[in-house]
Design a protein that fits this description.
The protein is an alpha+beta fold. The protein has 8 helices and 11 strands. It has one domain: q2cbj1_9rhob like domain (Jelly Rolls, Sandwich), CATH 2.60.120. Helix content is about 20%, strand content about 20%. It is globular. The chain starts with 6 loop residues before the first helix and ends in a 13-residue tail after the last helix. The relative contact order is 0.21.
C-alpha cells in the first residue's frame, strides 16, 4: 500500500466494513423517491457459530493456497428461503463467447451483478445486508487479515457444456466466497459443477491460460447443498470448473461474494461512480 496520507492507507485503517453502495446512495437527489419502511427480518442467514469455528491457521496454511469448504455455512431456514427465492434468469445477462484475457476460454453463463436499488426478493435483500454487516466482516478479517474489505455480489447460473477455464483472479480480489444453491436431491454428482482448487508442480505465469490437464485437483466445493467455498487470491491460486454434463433443463446455481481491497483501480472506479468490478453502483 502507499505511504501515510494516501487514500488507500486511509481506507485500510478503517475498523468497520466499508459499503460503497451506501456511500454512493447517500448522494441521491432530494427528489429521489424514499423507499417505504419494511419490518426488519428476524431470520438469520449466516451460520455465525459455524463460521466462528473455522480455523484461521488451517485456512492460511492449507496447500496449494488458502482455501476452505464450509458445510452448513447458512442456517437451515436461511438456506431454504434463499434457495426458494433465487432470482430468475429473465433479469440476468447471458454471456456467451465473451473474450477473456491471456487466451483463456470464455466463461459462458447467466450473470446478475448486484447494485444498490436492484429489485430482489426480501430474503436476498436481508442476506446481502448481513454480508455487508459487522459480523461477516469480522469473520473475513479473522481469516484474511485486519484490513477493510469492499464486497461485491453476483449470481452465476450455468447450463450444460459451460465451463470455467483455470485462472487466477485480479489482484484487487483478495478472496472469493462462493455459496452453492443446487438441491442435492435434484443434482447428480456425475453432472459436475464443483469449483476446483488446482495446483501445479511448476510455477506458471499468473497471466496465462493453462489447461486442466496441466494442473492437479487439490480440492473442490459445490455446487449442491448448504455449503460454501472460500479461497484467497495468490499468484498461483488456480481454480476453475470443468464442462457441465447436466441435462439441458438444469442450471448450476451459485452466489459469489468477491472480497475486494482498495487498490488504485478500485478507488478510481469509485470516483467515477462504479464499484470494484466496474459496474455502476446503482441499478438503472
Amino acid at each position: 500500500m502507499g505511504g501515510g496520507g494516501s487514500p488507500a492507507a486511509a481506507v485500510d485503517a478503517a475498523s468497520e466494513p466499508c459499503n460503497p453502495h451506501l456511500m454512493h446512495t447517500e448522494k441521491v437527489s432530494r427528489d429521489a423517491p424514499i423507499p417505504s419502511p419494511r419490518a426488519q427480518s428476524q431470520v438469520q442467514y449466516l451460520n455465525h457459530e459455524l463460521l466462528d469455528s473455522v480455523s484461521a491457521h488451517d485456512f492460511r496454511n492449507r496447500p496449494p493456497f488458502p482455501w476452505t469448504h464450509i458445510e452448513n455455512s447458512l442456517t437451515p431456514e436461511g438456506y431454504e428461503l434463499l434457495r426458494a427465492t433465487m432470482p430468475g434468469t429473465n433479469s440476468f445477462d447471458r454471456h456467451i463467447g465473451v473474450k477473456r484475457a491471456h487466451g483463456q476460454v470464455s466463461h459462458d453463463r447467466y450473470m446478475l451483478h448486484y447494485r444498490a436499488g436492484l429489485e430482489l426478493p426480501d430474503p436476498w435483500r436481508d442476506f446481502i445486508a448481513e454480508l455487508n454487516g459487522p459480523a461477516y466482516h469480522r469473520f473475513l478479517r479473522r481469516l484474511l487479515g485486519p484490513r477493510n474489505y469492499i464486497c461485491t455480489f453476483s449470481w452465476h447460473y450455468a447450463w450444460a457444456g459451460c465451463s470455467v477455464s483455470p485462472h487466477c483472479d485480479a489482484a484487487r480480489k483478495l478472496a472469493t466466497h462462493i455459496f452453492h444453491f443446487n438441491d442435492p436431491a435434484d443434482w447428480k454428482p456425475e453432472w459436475g459443477g464443483a469449483t476446483l482448487i488446482l495446483a501445479s508442480d511448476r510455477k506458471l505465469p499468473t497471466h496465462s491460460a493453462p489447461a486442466f490437464d496441466e494442473l492437479t485437483v487439490a480440492g473442490a466445493g459445490g455446487p449442491a447443498g448448504n455449503g460454501s467455498l472460500l479461497f484467497q487470491r495468490t499468484d498461483h491460486s488456480w481454480h476453475g470448473m470443468k464442462a457441465l454434463a447436466c441435462p439441458e433443463d438444469k442450471l448450476r446455481r451459485i452466489f459469489s461474494v468477491t472480497i475486494n481491497v482498495p487498490t488504485a483501480q478500485v478507488l478510481w472506479r469509485r470516483i467515477r461512480g462504479k464499484d470494484p468490478d466496474g459496474f455502476p453502483v446503482r441499478a438503472a
